[in-house]
Specification:
By secondary structure, the protein is mostly beta strands. It is built from one helix and five strands, in the order αβββββ. A five-stranded antiparallel β-sheet has the order 1-2-3-4-5, with helices on one face. The longest helix has 8 residues.
Length: 75
């Protein structure tokens, strides 16, 4: 997961920071010359996870692998 973060976010700039659903989901948006990425930190006590997404919300890497290929915000 760390290698994917370095490969995709090195040199990128943080453009926004927000909480999703006013809950424990932190979204950081990064941008570089060619693309944009989202880093999602799900700060839940039972199943915390960190995901790197492309601009179409396709999962590039995750700290806790799931069977999903695209990200949907938990309800």
């Amino acid at each position: 997961f760390l290698k994917a973060l370095l490969n995709h976010l090195q040199g990128a700039k943080l453009v926004s920071l927000s909480l999703l659903n006013e809950d424990r989901i932190l979204q950081l948006a990064f941008s570089n010359k060619n693309s944009s990425y989202l880093l999602i930190a799900e700060l839940f006590s039972k199943f915390p996870n960190c995901l790197l997404l492309n601009d179409k919300k396709v999962i590039i890497a995750t700290s806790l692998p799931t069977g999903r290929t695209s990200y949907l915000t938990p309800e």
